[in-house]
Structure formats: structure tokens, C-alpha cells
Amino acid sequence: MEVMKKGKRLELLRFFYPTGMTMQWKLIVVFIFLITIPIITTSYISYENYVRSIDNNTRKYVGESIVNMQSKLDDHVNDMQFISKIPLYSILMQQYLAENHMDLEIQRQMDFYIDLMNNVRKDLYTVYIFNNSGNVFYRLRTDSVRSDLMSHYKEWSTKAKEVSGDPVLISTQELPEGTGSSRYVFTLVRDIKDINTNISVGTVVVDGGLEVIENVVQEMNDVTKGKTLIVDPHNNVIYDSDKKLIARNIDGYEDLSKVVDKKGSFNTILDGEHYICNYIVSAKTGWKMLVYVPVYYLYKDAVLTRNVTLTATAGIIIFALFFSIVLSFTMTKPLRKLTKLMKQVRGGNLDVSFLVKFRDEVGVLGNEFNLMLRRIKELINEIYTISYRRKEAELEALQSQINPHFIYNTLETIRMRAEINDDDEVAEMTFTLGKLLRYSINLSREIVTLQDELNHLEHYVQLLRCRFSNRFELHYEIPEDLLSYQVMKLTFQPIVENAILHGVEGMEAIVQISFVARVEKNQIIFVIRDEGVGIDERRLQQLRDSLRGEASVGGAKSGVGLRNINQRIKLHYGEIYGIEIDSRPGLGTEVRLCLPYLKG
């Protein structure tokens, strides 16, 4: 399971950070993402917020406006109701209506009252008053009277009587004109009762023209570029801005089922076009007013803003692409130069150099590259020098190889003669010298243990004791755990020899020589110290210069021996190891030899 998760993480990493893509193209992709994603996201959020704000503000504005529109329509209906109440308080008019006949005086008085009622609201078409005999009184406000008065009289009278004097609103009716056109009115009827007897004496009919409604809603339609629909509680259309549904019943109209509260809004589609519909239900008349606002008109500015934003975004992306290409090319140019130089180095050309112009990360990398090349060339020179010196040493060793068997046999012959002549001292010296010779010219072993080296040193010291008549004493202070330490062969013999020769020289007393070994951190320090006459300052400086390879010691055997050992140590172990020498005239000489301590 864990392996599968790691595999998915690797696939995801390769998707977002493709390994085969150059650094330049990676930078371009990063720049484009860093620029375009925030711009696109910001533009999208701004557009959505803008659209949402327009939607909310529109619903709020239209909602407030239709409340005012409904209030104006209710005021108009109130006026119509007020007009219809005038006959209820006119005793004289009621007396005229109670007369079931008509004469000139009654007609003149009724005309006066009707004219008075018509002038209350000049935007009403007309007022009609019927007596119970079916006689009608009216004053024309148009060129013609309604042709359907008598056909609707009984219906109106019945409805008015059913509600006992309350007003009754009749939905919009279509009235044909003589010119072949039609006009529309909505009607309010009320039963007229005698004040004294409370007996019905007639019916008042007030016709209202749709111009009243149209004047109220037209301003809203002009602002929103939408349309308005008004229906009564029985779903009969009172008013329609499109003039298509007026005076029709629309029980199956889908949007009416969405009118569930006193007021609200919803989204709808009419004839394939999207609308925001705000509605309100009149508490006085029960009329439902639906105001439709086309979405395309609302979002026209938002769409324009979106298109401008998209155009600007596209321009910015193109500019960002151009800028990122130029910038990535500029940033990766030093890296490409460095890569080219690395390929030249891989081909063997080390005589190259990176020109550092800036102190940034690439500049640091370039400096390190130049330092690396310099170090590589130094190492190559060191390896060449080491190889050259080794070849010289091997040549010298070959040149110094005189037939060892001949020397062994000769020394053995001398030893046998000495024993025959009872000269044990010569025989012992000859035997010891043979051991030294075998140890020195044995080419099969270049690295020996410290114990082997000390054994060889002891043999060599035996010969020197014979030479100098035991005028020195050599003391060892070496920890037992260091005896198995691996060293180069013939490392200590020249140093001890130099200490004995210079220590005994000019001294009558026995000279004390010490050989001390100790471990300091990761190094082994060997110290060979004598109590001889010491070395003067000039000679000591010559020896030190010789150890550093800066000058010759004038052919002195001891100086050459120390220099050769020092060079062998540095070639084998490294430049930080080698020999140091210190001396004071009259106090003796101390030679320190430093080797790496390799545990195990």
C-alpha cells in the first residue's frame, strides 16, 4: 500500500515537474501560471460578484418599484370605490332612481350628478347608473357608449346585490370600437340602496381605462426593457404589456404557480429568453402583478465588462509569455554557458574559465566551477609529480640492486671465517649486517608493522654500538597496542642514525637517545630526541628548507636522508604528514614524525 502511495506521489511530481523539460521552459511555465491564474481567478470572481450584485440590486429595485406601482393601482381602485359611493349618500339621486320612469327633469338631474362623478378622476372612461327598470344614465367621455351595456346589466346587478352594497371588481373586458379596433376597460359595480328603506334602487358602474395601469407600469418597463402582467384572483388577465393576453383566462400559466407569497422573485424562461420575475399580490384587490426583467439587458454591461476583461487577460497573458521567455532566457543564459563549459571539461579541455558577472547563486556556482578546475589541474600536476618521483625511485632501486645473493654469500663466508678464527664479534657483526641487508633490499614488502621496523632498527643500532663503543643509550617508550601499526619500511633508521651520529659527535659522556610514540587525535606522533651538541641556527634552517623542498643541504648525508623520508611520507600519506625538526645548540635535537592513525 505504501509503495502504491509513493508511486502515485512520484507520478504527480512528474506531472507538475517534468524531468525532461529544460530549466528555461520550467521558468516560462512557472511565470505563466503565477501571472495568468491570479488574473483569471480575480477576473472570474469579479465578474461573478458583479453579476450577483446586479441581480440582487435589480430584484431589490424592482421589488420596491412594484410595491409603489401596486400602491398606485390600489389608490386608483380606491378612487373608483369613492366615486361609486357618491350615489349612496345622495337622497335626491336615490329618489330619481326610485322613479321607474324617465322624463326630461330626471335626465337633466342625473346628468348633473354623473358629470360630477366623472370629474373626480378625468382618466376614467365613464360612469353608468342603472335603475331597477333597466334604464341607464351616463355622460359620454368618448365618442360612443358601450354597446354591451344592456347585455351585462343583469350580470352586474346580480353580482352587486350578492355582496350587499360592497364594491365588485370586474376583470378587464374587450370593447369593440366602430372603427374595427378594440379598447379595454376594467369595471367596478356597486348596488345602490335607499338610505331610509335600505332597498336597492339601482346599480352604479364605473369603467376604468387600461391607460391608468399603463401609465403606472410603462415607466418601469422603459427602465428595465421588460414587461408587466397583472391578473385577478381568478387568473383573468387585467393587463399585459405585450397586449396578447388581456381579458383572457390563463389558469395553466406556469409562472402563476410560482407566486406563493405576498411578494418575491424567481427566474423563468419565456419564449426561450431568460427573465427575472418580481411579483406582488395586492391585499386590497387580490390582483397579482408580475414584472419581467430580461436577463440579457441586466447583464449587458457585465458581459461587456467580461469581454473587456477577457481581452485584457489575453493581452496580459501574451505579454507575460513574451516577458517570461525573455526573462527565463536571460536567467538561464549563464547556466547554459556553464553547461557548455562542463561539456568541454568532460571532453578533456581544462583550460576554460567561467566569467562571473554577478554575485548571485549562478555567480557562486561559477566561482566554485573555476576553483574546481584549478584544483583538478593541481591534482593532475601532483599525480604527475608523484608518478615521476616513483619512477625515479624505482629506477634508483633497480640501479642499486647488486646481486643480493652474492652479497649474502660473501657475508656468510666472512662470518664462517670469523668463527673458524674464533672471532665471535666479527661473526656477530657480519650476521647482523646480513639481516639488515635482507630487510633493506626485500622489494616484496614495502609496508611493515611497527614491530618489524623496531626489530630492524635494533639490528642497525647493534652495529652502531660496536662502531661508537657504546657511547649512547637508546630508550623506547612505545605503547604495546601500536606495535601492530603499519608503516613504510626503513622509516626510522635514517632518523635514529642521524640522532646517534650528531648526538655522539663531540660528546665524551654517554648520550641519551629516546624514541617515543603517542596518539594525538587521529595522528601518531613519533619523537626521536638526543642530548647531543645540537644544531646551529643556520644549519637548522637549511635542514628545514630541505624538508620543504626549497633548498639543498649541500650534499650532507643526514639532510638527504631526512628529506627522502619526508618526501616518501608525503607521497604515501598526504601533504599534511611528514617530519619536523627542532634543535638548540648544547641541548640536543628533536625530530617529530607525524603519521595518520588508522584504527583497526
UniProtKB/TrEMBL annotation:
One of its GO terms (cellular component) is plasma membrane. It comes from the Bacteria. It is an enzyme of class 2 (transferase). One of its GO terms (molecular function) is phosphorelay sensor kinase activity. It catalyses: ATP + protein L-histidine = ADP + protein N-phospho-L-histidine. Signal peptide: none annotated. The chain crosses the membrane at residues 27-47, 310-332. This is histidine kinase. Residues 424-599 form the Histidine kinase domain. It is found in: Cell membrane. Residues 329-381 form the HAMP domain. Its EC number is 2.7.13.3. SUPFAM superfamilies: ATPase domain of HSP90 chaperone/DNA topoisomerase II/histidine kinase (SSF55874), HAMP domain-like (SSF158472). It is a multi-pass membrane protein. It comes from Paenibacillus psychroresistens. Keywords: ATP-binding, Cell membrane, Kinase, Membrane, Nucleotide-binding, Phosphoprotein, Transferase, Transmembrane, Transmembrane helix, Two-component regulatory system.
